[in-house]
Design a protein that fits this description.
The protein is mostly helical. It has a domain of 52 residues. It is built from 2 helices and no strands. Helix 1 packs antiparallel against helix 2. It is elongated and about 55 Å long. The two termini are 35 Å apart.
């Protein structure tokens, strides 16, 4: 007898069918943030503060997505 193990986000139904770090909409949001920051710096230099805020938000989003995606492999249990 084998035990059956299911992971919630691998099921095709339910709210967790697509986890956040695999969602292409989040990657597209990050692309839009970076694009808008570049556009503001090139076309509207007076909005440089907003562009900097968008870049900081983009960097935080990228770091968060990386940490969520690599959650178990940064420091595996008792393998220091």
């Amino acid at each position: 007898m084998q035990a059956e193990v299911t992971i919630p986000w691998h099921d095709d139904d339910g709210p967790m069918s697509s986890p956040l770090w695999h969602d292409p909409a989040v990657e597209f949001l990050n692309f839009i943030l970076i694009f808008m920051a570049g556009y503001l710096v090139l076309r509207r230099p007076d909005r440089e503060r907003l562009a900097f805020g968008l870049l900081v938000t983009s960097c935080l989003l990228m770091a968060t997505l990386f940490l969520i995606g690599a959650r178990g492999s940064i420091l595996p249990g008792l393998n220091y």
